[in-house]
Amino acid sequence: MEVYYTTVKNYNLLDRRNKLLDLTFSNLGDNKRILVKPNILGPYPPDKHVTTHPAFLDWILKYLIEVKGIEEGNIVVGESSGFSTEKAYEVSRIKEVCEKYGISFLPFERDKSVKIKLLNTTLAIPKTVIDSDLIINLPKLKTHVLMRYTGAVKNLYGCIPGGLKIKLHKYFPRAYDFAHLLVELYRYLSKGREIISVMDGIWGMDGNGPSNGKPVNAQIVIASRDALALDIFATYYIGYNPMDVLTNRILTERIENWEDKLNIFEVDGIVRRRDLMEVPRMNFRKPDTYYLTSILPPFIIRLISSIIIEKPRIDRVRCKRCGVCEKICPVGAISLENLEIDRKKCINCYCCHEMCRFNAIKLRRFL
Ligand code: SF4
Ligand code: SF4
């Protein structure tokens, strides 16, 4: 479980950090079909720091083509945004970078798909994902109102096409169930191919991420051929106990003495081995949904969940009536006619909060 990290103040300096990629991409093998999976959550410009920065993708593609000698035709960049992947691809300026290198971009909802069963639920996985020999996973370092953190394991959920991604919240409404789904998907994808993750943490997001938090210049790039190891390191770096994040907790259950297997290297001019405890940390502001649920024991939470759980409501002043939240809500709880959310239907998945580009969904404990 090797993790490499380097500090980088801004995107212009990435070219000086190829050593990190040399270590991460050593012995790459003969991969014919490489899928690059950035995080393009929605149509956000790069300076919002919601999506993987185009300069970060540029750095990775340039390295693969110029240093590793991989042909452009063997690489596809793919994603399924919460809505309008095409628009997200353009606004995030990922399109510009793909065009610069002559690499095709695939909105997964346009691909053929293969049906698989995970946790007794049928999922459609794009054929391009199934056929890939290698996934290069480029998550963004952010907090997340439902899952507390989104990183390497969670970013792979964007391999599920279009509306199905949101609809699945209906079948896995609790954070714990949803974490199991993320873990099983990660395990499934890891079986047939290698997954190499390089995280864009130069600018991340804290607070009510993954889209309505505050951008933070976290000045770090983290890379690993083990998505779990990367997530353990990243969650520690931003001030969590890594076991507070459910995907980390579930995945480490099957690894005996995982702490001893974690090998961390700081990569600068030279490469230094570090203990996790030696790594300087940041204190990311946690999502509003985090505090009570992390202090109280689970049985108390179950008893008083209707009181302590943050609930979404529409801010009538901020709302632009774009219709996105109404369209994506997996249980049809939102009515734009009166700007109301039906509390009886709502499962608190926070997809509306995540997808509202105008920060018009507010989370409140008491309504
Ligand atoms: S709350 Fe946000 S997503 Fe929903 S209609 Fe208003 S602006 Fe659009
Ligand atoms: S109203 Fe929002 S939080 Fe509630 S179920 Fe719909 S999308 Fe999820």
UniProtKB/TrEMBL annotation:
A Pfam family per the record: Fer4
A single MF term (Gene Ontology): metal ion binding
InterPro entries assigned to the protein according to its UniProt record, in alphabetical order: 4Fe4S_Fe-S-bd (IPR017896), 4Fe4S_Fe_S_CS (IPR017900), DUF362 (IPR007160), PSI_iron-sulfur_center (IPR050157)
Q: Which UniProt keywords apply?
A: 4Fe-4S, Iron, Iron-sulfur, Metal-binding
Q: What's the superkingdom here?
A: Archaea
Can the keyword Cell cycle be found in this entry's annotation?
no
Position of the signal peptide: none
> Which residues are listed as membrane-spanning?
none
Record keywords: 4Fe-4S included?
yes
Q: Where is the 4Fe-4S ferredoxin-type domain?
A: 310-339, 340-366
**Protein's recorded name:** DUF362 domain-containing protein
Q: Which organism is this protein's natural source?
A: Methanothermococcus okinawensis
